[in-house]
Amino acid sequence: REASGLGTANVVLDREAVDVLIKYYCRESGVRNLKKHIDKIYRKAALKVVQELGEDTFPEPQAVVDAAAASATEPVQQTTPESEPISEATTEADSTEPEPSSEPSISSESTTSTPPTSPADTTPNPSEDDPKNVTTQQRKPLPIPETVHIHITPETLKDYVGPPVYQKDRMYARTPPPGVSTGLGYLGNGSGAVMPVEAVSMPGKGGLQLTGKLGEVIRESAQIALSWVKGHAFELGITTSAGDTFLNERDVHVHMPEGSIGKEGPSAGTAITTAFVSLFTKTPVNPDIAMTGEISLVGQVLPVGGLKEKILAAHRAGMKTIIAPAANRADIESNVPDSVKEGIKFVYVETVKEVLEEVFHGQPIAERWKETLP
């Protein structure tokens, strides 16, 4: 603010505007980008004041005007270097041809020639002949009238920093259709994100298609999740008997939206498993539940990293329940601020069965799992 010349001006940046700036413009780790945006806001505010009031209110200082006028009227003198006189001896030496010698090798070694002087070497340095006086007097900010009032609110923030870089925090504010769950991911810029997982089935030959710029590890997590669901299809109530085949004539397509953002890591294992169970049992998932955790082929939930950033993203999106691996409990309790955890219910799980019981709590299908799931 001081650097923009608005130290004494009535310029107010709302706290709500700063919150919007953090949520939709500066989600990176640290505050460097946030500081750049705040500096930009004050520079735009200073420009707005000058454009509205004009030069009548902010005249140029008289000393600067006089200096500019003096430099404009001062004639420009060009100095031409005088040519140096050429000695007669040099002229005679140049015009006289050397006589042939009987010992050319000796004469060539004993005779040294002086290289000609280039015009650039004889040109005087303008900085040496006409040194310029440099002043170090610091210009003071111009006084701003007391009638100037600038109030920067979330509604007017776009006029100063442009449109938001990030969009809404959650895609599904209402109950989504079966086959959709909410995962938590860690982005390459050091921030967390709420990542929905969508799954649909269609006639086919039992294939699995994955889209959304997914990395190799997350593709393996989808394969593990589908294998676990196939292996427990009867216990989950998907098939009517233990010997029934499942998905032999159906293809499954898994997609994670925002395909321009690369997604990597095993953290989406529990979310993909939940999406498969929701799809095949035709049971929707509560959109206020987010989860993270790697799964094993036998249904164990393994710890993951980036919990602090993921929980911050869930808090920002208004999630009410977070399902996390039990092995990450100490990390969450010690490294995540209480202000972020406030209002969020944490459920720590060790198996996929515990994940499904929490996600589908109160649903008719969940009562069956108490007896059938191991």
In a few lines, what is going on in this structure?
Helices cover 37% and strands 14% of the residues.
List the helices and strands and how they pair.
Layout: E1 10-13, H1 15-24, H2 32-53, H3 62-73, H4 88-95, H5 104-110, H6 119-122, H7 126-129, E2 149-152, H8 158-161, E3 180-186, E4 192-203, E5 208-211, H9 216-231, E6 250-255, H10 269-281, E7 289-291, E8 294-295, E9 301-302, H11 307-317, E10 321-325, H12 329-335, H13 338-341, E11 345-349, H14 352-359, H15 364-372
Parallel strand pairs: 1-2, 5-6, 7-10, 10-11
Antiparallel strand pairs: 3-4, 4-6, 8-9
Helix pairs in contact: 9-10, 10-14
**Which runs of at least 5 residues are low in confidence (pLDDT < 50)?**
78-98, 100-113, 117-121
Q: Quaternary arrangement of the chains shown?
A: single chain
Number of helices: 15
Number of separate strands: 11
What structural class should be given to the helix and strand makeup? alpha/beta
- Radius of gyration, Cα only, in angstroms? 38 Å
What's the mean pLDDT score? 79
The CA-CA distance between the termini, in Å, is: 63 Å
What is the approximate shape?
A: elongated
Helix proportion of residues, in percent?
25-40%
Classify the beta-strand content into a percent band: 5-15%
Q: What's the story with the biggest beta sheet?
A: 4 strands, mixed
Trace the largest sheet across and list its strands.
3-4-6-5
